[in-house]
């Protein structure tokens, strides 16, 4: 391990299953011997308080070596400055030996992404984000026509985990 560092974003609207998918990926990557770091964007506004950092605690319990949550200029690792860009956080992570960095949120960044779709309104997300690796959709999402990306039902865990982990193992 350690020869390459993969970055993967997990994006979707609130309650689409991002943190649960992050836990699944962290657990599987850790089982395979990868060292995983996570970054979560606190997208609900405000400074992430300790009690609102529960998702990063879930990341830790799943096996992440390093976790951070960022919101309104506060990086809950706890380093404070006027503003945090994802690139600034990744620069800090560069000094830590990790194989995989999983990012929850930051829809406007351009790293490879898994997009979660729960409702018909979520379709617009596919036009707003770049670099889509695959899509996971809920039964409540009307998959009327094939998508331009590999797509998996949220209930096809074995298939999407295999697909995503193959992507994470690939050399850059």
UniProtKB/TrEMBL annotation:
Listed transmembrane segments: none
InterPro entries (UniProt xref): MGD_biosynthesis_adapter, MobB_dom, P-loop_NTPase
Stretches of the chain forming a coiled coil according to its record: none
Residues annotated as domain Molybdopterin-guanine dinucleotide biosynthesis protein B (MobB): 7-135
Q: Which Pfam families match?
A: MobB (PF03205)
Q: Which domain of life is it from?
A: Bacteria
List, alphabetically, the NCBIfam families matched.
Answer: mobB (TIGR00176)
Q: What is this protein called?
A: Molybdopterin-guanine dinucleotide biosynthesis protein B
Query: What organism is recorded for this protein?
Result: Lysinibacillus agricola
